[in-house]
Amino acid sequence: MINEKLSKQKIAIAEIVKDLHQLTLDIKHEELAKTVSELRNRILDPFMFVVVGEVKAGKSSFVNALLDSGQEICKTAASPMTDTIQQIIYGEEENLQVINPYLKRISLPVEILKEIAIVDTPGTNTIVAHHQEITEEFIPASDLIVFVFEAKNPYRQSAWEFFDYINADWRKKIIFVLQQKDLMNDADLQTNLTGVKEYAEKKGIAQPNIFAVSAKMEQDGYKENSGFKSLRKYIAENITSGQAPFLKLENNIHLSKTINEKISKGLDTRNQQFKADLSFRSDIRNTLTEQENKSSRQVDALVSNLLSGYDAITLKKERELNEELAFGKLLRKSISAFWSKKQSPKEWLTNFSDDLGAELNKEMRHKLGEGVSDIADSIQQMGKMVDLKIKTSDTILKNDHEIFSDIAERRANVLKDLRETFDHFLNKSENFSGEEFFQNNESISPNLAAGGGIALVGAILTTVTNGMVFDITGGILTTVGLLFAGVSVGWQRSKIIKGYREEILKGRNQLEDEVSRKLKDYIANIKTKIDANFSKFDDMLNKEESMINELKNKQVAISQQLENLTIESIN
């Protein structure tokens, strides 16, 4: 019954680990994928001890003494001997298999190996660079870490740094062994035992299990004093005697949860960055809309100001025209012109038209100077505000992130490209010339168009709007001038006044429509151009949203499966 339950549990965890492995592949994290792959490969393996510690701490001697096979299984010598990982498992016959240049598998007919496997590793402070990397790769799949210290000096920094990696990253079950106790007196040994206990407690290990042993004494036959008796008792009570398979299964579940939690936390950070980027993008759109509305209101104010000046001048000139076209005055002008060099009615009307044009041009130029400056400032502010927001966007997912450093780097590259592209955009004058809206206006000089982008908006707007407004007023004056052609008698006054009013109204409507429409179209077009710089950023956000949702759904499903999986107690 126990074996049947155990088999079902192993099948269940194997399926979960398979899904977890696929998730690590989906997130493209090679290290985690390799760890979970190792876990999948070792689900059916025996309970695994991994022996770690610094070079010359006595790890290999410890393993030889623990197995008590009467032979030197792990090589020992005055200089470091363990240059590969040695996995020691049960076998009916002794056998050595070289898995790769860094891993050997030794099979031995030793009773204890029916329930456990032992992995002897190179020193954590070895001078060969790949040794520690390979040792670290073995740690996640381990079921118990046996941390071996040199009894006379268990305080080496590199050893405790490696302990931090084991404890903080993988929260593995650890026991501490002070090896070579025969080289110390009892008082000093007790001091070091207390020191290791305090170290371990400070690092979060409650009630650490610490054993002082001497492999030499054990192998020389002094078994009562070697310290191995209490260690073997601990192993028998807590691991062997039929418990190892269940403990192995618990460790597999624990490791799966640990990895899944790492991914979950990574996805949470990634999602925080995504939400921050969404907020940043929304802020950009709102900024553009607010600045567009502000600029549009300034256009309305400019047009209203232009029309106010236009109305004042044209109404004043209408009153003057109405008065001077009275029959008596017009007749006197005609007679006076005949007998003297005074203006004829036709000459007076020509001068009237010229004066109207001069007054309108002067007034329009003054009004434009005031209004265009405000609009230009608003458009420039639009570009500068967006530029500042791009440069100060919030980065939550860092390039050194444990899980998603590649995503952080990809985002950083997209943001860098956005900054460079937008900076280039701001300095390119054709992006602000508005030629597509002022095609009939040829007053933009080549020198102006070749200038420095957003900094020239004011000059561009002044040039364009001046030309546009004066084209409109010029057209009005030409038409008004035609009305005056051939005038000689006062009975034409009502016809002229009516024609004047009609043309002035047409000009007013044209001025209001064209200046307002073209300036607002110009502002909207610049807004659209600015927003278009974010196309790659938007594409990244769209892909990121779907990817996060897909990965999170898978991660949550695995979490639920792990929570639902219960280990049947051996009791």
Description:
The protein has 571 residues and is an alpha/beta fold. The chain has two domains: 45-242, P-loop containing nucleotide triphosphate hydrolases (Rossmann fold, 3-Layer(aba) Sandwich); 291-549, no CATH class. It is 65% helix and 8% strand. It has 16 helices and eight strands. Strand 6 (144-150), helix 5 (157-170) and strand 7 (174-179) form a beta-alpha-beta unit. Helix 1 runs parallel beside helix 9, helix 9 (244-324) runs antiparallel to helix 16 (535-564) and helix 11 packs antiparallel against helix 12. The protein is rod-shaped, with a radius of gyration of 44 Å. The model is unreliable at 77-81 (pLDDT under 50).
Provide a compact summary of the structure.
This protein has helices at residues 2-26, 30-42, 59-67, 129-138, 157-170, 186-202, 215-219, 228-238, 244-324, 327-339, 345-391, 405-426, 446-449, 457-484, 493-532, 535-564; strands at 47-53, 85-90, 95-100, 103-108, 116-120, 144-150, 174-179, 210-212.
Shape assignment: rod-shaped
Strand line-up across the major sheet? 3-4-2-5-1-6-7-8
Per DSSP, what share of the residues sits in E-state strands of 2 or more residues?
A: 5-15%
Q: State the helical fraction.
A: 55-70%
Number of strands: 8
- pLDDT averaged residue by residue: 84
Number of helices: 16
Main β-sheet description: 8 strands, mixed
Distance between termini? 12 Å
Radius of gyration: 44 Å
- Unreliable segments of 5+ consecutive residues: 77-81
Q: Could you say which structural class the secondary elements and strand pairing correspond to? A: alpha/beta
Q: Return the domain count.
A: 2
Order of helices and strands: HHEHEEEEHEHEHEHHHHHHHHHH
